[in-house]
Amino acid sequence: MRDLSDRTTLVVGASRGLGRGIARAFAQAGAPVVAVARTGTALAELAAAGARIQTAVADATDAATAGSLLDRHEPSIVVLVAGAGPLMRPLQHQTWETFSVNWHTDVRIAFHWLREALLRPLRPGATVVVVSSGAALAGSPLSGGYAGAKATQHLITGYARDEADRAGLGITFTAVLPRLTPLTGLGRPAVRAYAARGGQSEDDYLRQLGEPLTPEIAGSALVDLARADPATVAPGYLLTGAGLRDLPR
């Protein structure tokens, strides 16, 4: 269990949902936290709740943002949670613009930040966690290109891991795939849509998912992951209300 007091943790997408829970958990564990998001008001509320949290209002999809913030803060841990909420409609009711929104946000964010982490590079011993989605494994027929975008995030995290190993950089890259949860702004409309599609009540649909994943559980799980021996960190994990579970290789 490694001490986090000198491991600056940069959380991209920290203003809401799982990202907010992750930022708070790292601060509570003693890490200096840089919370990044586009919404200054939400970030200010987060910072007011923890003395170890400083904020950066920025657009994570901008190609210059990753390099600028990595240079400024020199983090030991980077967690990428930011992304767009998909339009919940079946394929035939999507347009190309709505279908592709997560490719232009979620995948773009992962690409820019993974690229900069390798190019800079981050210091040996650094950890980069890309928070993808369980939809990358199971699909998501009501959310356009969301599942494919999340699968691509998972894939390119693996590519970055391989490149870091080939270059001997000593940087750990891993992907975390959270299960659908009703406790975030992203998950609530998805639960409603899939329950209606299946002719179920939301309660019945949720019972199928098991214990709900909360922002607090997500935060605790990622703190444990950051504290682990890098040699034991797997390329990818499924994250549920019961915590992290290794993905099959």
From TrEMBL:
It holds the Pfam family adh_short. Transmembrane segments: none annotated. One of its GO terms (molecular function) is oxidoreductase activity. GO terms for cellular component: membrane. Keywords: Oxidoreductase. Gene3D superfamilies: NAD(P)-binding Rossmann-like Domain. The keyword Disulfide bond does not apply. InterPro entries: NAD(P)-bd_dom_sf (IPR036291), SDR_fam (IPR002347). PANTHER family: DEHYDROGENASE/REDUCTASE SDR FAMILY MEMBER 7B (PTHR44196), DEHYDROGENASE_REDUCTASE SDR FAMILY MEMBER 7B (PTHR44196:SF1). Belongs to the short-chain dehydrogenases/reductases (SDR) family. This is SDR family oxidoreductase. It comes from Frankia nepalensis.
